[in-house]
Queue: 2 jobs
Job 1
Amino acid sequence: MELSLQNITKFYFKNLALDRFSVHLTPGIYALLGPNGSGKSTLMNILTDNLKADSGTVMYTNDAGISENILKMGERFREKIGFMPQYSGFYPNFSAERFLWYIASLKGLDKNTATLQIPEVLAAVELSDVANHRIGTFSGGMKQRLAFAQAILGDPEILILDEPTAGLDPRQSVSIRNYISEIALDKIVLIATHVVSDIEYIAKEVIVMKKGTIAAKGSPSLLAKNMEGMVWQVTVPSEEVSEMQMFYRVTNISVPPTDANHVILRILSGHKPTSDAKTIVPTLEDYYLYTFGTEIL
Ligand SMILES: Nc1ncnc2c1ncn2[C@@H]1O[C@H](COP(=O)(O)OP(=O)(O)O)[C@@H](O)[C@H]1O
Ligand SMILES: [Mg+2]
């Protein structure tokens, strides 16, 4: 199975949201990493046939090697997809379970499969206890988990998740993340996020988006490697922190356990910031912060 996006362009009036965006996806987890407004949701809405591109095509290739335009496939394509949009609408009077039954019928699941899977997905997102409660009484995090549950219902071969951990506490984020990596085998999974830790350890490939185009693409470790020799650790007296921040991109400040008068800075810089600065192993987050600089700091 393959999904191929070819030269996707999308304008909202005169605002160019996607600019000849092309990418080829095979089974595995891909991250769509980029700041707000970079075009992640637009891309996902086009990929799930919820929004029409101005130009470009999305081709789906099945395991027999036959390629088709997804617009031509219509329902046959949509039933292969689990989609968690960035903003989900729910009927507040439905219970979580009834909502999932409703989704199961939209997805064309037979009754036996739904009977089996609905309790499974509710358990996976830790909503079994409130399965019969009205969604109107749910917190934002609970609704977010229900949105994830409806996406994975029916075991779709393509899973498109738009900021799946937004509004979740760290423990729930980890639980969703682990669940995604468990079920990802044989699936194409695309996760949009601006939270590096969501995808750093599970994505086979990170597609870094900037203003509707691909700024970079590669495995998390390969992207992090670009920063080798540019991530520094410097210990300075506490009163020098603001001066260092004026001249350097400081991405972390910590206090050493034994010395309250000094701080340890993590600095991204093309040159050695101080004579006693040491280089440290770069992470994907260093790369992301360096790429987007002041846009997100
Ligand atoms: N429905 C819309 N109408 C007009 N402009 C939009 C709409 N949706 C998105 N945009 C614009 O398109 C660009 C990309 O947005 P979006 O795809 O939501 O990015 P992301 O998901 O990365 O935050 C932004 O400039 C945004 O303001
Ligand atoms: Mg978005």
Job 2
Amino acid sequence: MVQGLSYYPLSLYFRLRFGHSAWKISVDAGLSCPNVDGTVSRQGCIYCNIPSFSPSRRREAAGRSVAQQIADGRQRLIRRYGEQRAGALIAYFQPATNTHGPVDRLRAIWREALQQPGVVGLAVGTRPDCAADAALDILAELAAERWVSVEYGVQSIHQHSLQWLRRGHDFACCESAVNRTLARGLNVAVHLILGLPGESRDEMNATAETMARLRVNMVKLHNLHVVRDTPLATLWRSGGISLPSLEEYAAEVVDFLERLPPDCVIDRLSGDAPPEFFLAPQWSQDKSAVRRAVEEEFVRRGTRQGSHWLG
Ligand code: SF4
């Protein structure tokens, strides 16, 4: 981690890894999710509204090839940052479960993505109970030539939280997926939620310590946030849950990051959703304010990512 930074952000990792900035472009391969299509259940996770992951893309992606989605995403970046800065792209298979399909189809969509101009790597979002060795073997082959990351929705190590979230898997399968993925030389990113009802600070910290023990490469932190048309939205409207304040969340994040190794990359600090889907808490729509609150908490404590291990 660079001196002076409180944590190791993804933007810095990309600059060090590729020699310049890189951008993730969300790609919707039209795959389903085992927690929705009946393979595991039909109820979905309590917070999940799949289109809210990338609504414009999921609506527009119907009928558009992987290549076309990447080309369109690249054009958007060029318009925003100019040709020079929009150089390196990571094709991010984001909505739903992107290892949930026949391996021949998975191989084809991943290869198609890597063949597009400017694409330097692949990020594949999936569930830990959907990490078949055959799919990981294909990704390991691709990783011989390009940067490849598998992003697992882990959320928590605690069974009571996984049940409340309706994840439909336990933590043992997360551990197995992470270990089998790392053993193939692939990068592993884990998505985790802080501020779950009934989860104590000690329990959140235990999740951080477990991620440190597993040596995951990257962490994506989300505050529990409510999007419309979800069971969580119904619960929140009825007053069945309360959400932490920004100050409480910043303290939880700093507790967490202090327990991660300094070289673990922090992909994001909070969750969000497009305004047309987002309900609460309002503060999490302002990512700069979240970053500032986390920085201020680090300064207040005089600590940084990894302090727990470095002393
Ligand atoms: S695993 Fe992902 S896509 Fe599937 S229901 Fe849960 S959050 Fe939604």
